[in-house]
Amino acid sequence: MNDGNRHDGSRRTGVPVQEILTTVSEEMRMMSDTASDLQDLISNLVVAGAFGGSQSLYELQSLDRLCQNLGAVADFLAGVSKSSSLDWKVDIADAAQAVKLADLSDRLTGRQTPSDPPNEETGEFDDFGNWPMTG
Predict the structure, then answer these.
(1) So which domain of life are we looking at (predicted)?
(2) By CB neighbour count within 10 A (0-12 exposed, 13-18 middle, 19+ buried), where does 80 fall?
């Protein structure tokens, strides 16, 4: 489990709040982009007739709201980051231990950058190939 250590294993204490907020903002932006991609996929399924009835369409609007909220939180964190003092520092080790997804924890603590290739062995794989697609 990631414990807030650096790439070389040394502990990251006194991390600037500005850096943390910027990193979390970037993660939120990536989540927003992923949710938006899912929204596009679901829209294609709706057009193809995989979802039936107005209730399903109404409930799918919550995905649009999720995309908007994730983007708005990312913007908010980026704004707070810009106005935070470089002198504000925190120890991120305990917070990093609470994150159960290793690749996300690594990105949040600076052990991996968003441009690094993802660790393919983190998380669980759900095979949706056997799910029935009924309307």
Answers:
(1) Bacteria
(2) middle
| Interatomic CA distance for residues 76 and 101, integer angstroms | 24
Read off the pTM: 0.67
Count CB atoms within 10 A of the CB of residue 67. Answer: 19
Both tokens assigned to 116: 């690094």
Give 20-49 pLDDT, tens digit per residue.
Answer: 999 999 999 999 999 999 888 888 887 787
Looking at residue 112, its amino acid is Q
| 39 SS3 class | helix
Burial of 95 by CB count in 10 Å (0-12 exposed, 13-18 middle, 19+ buried)? middle
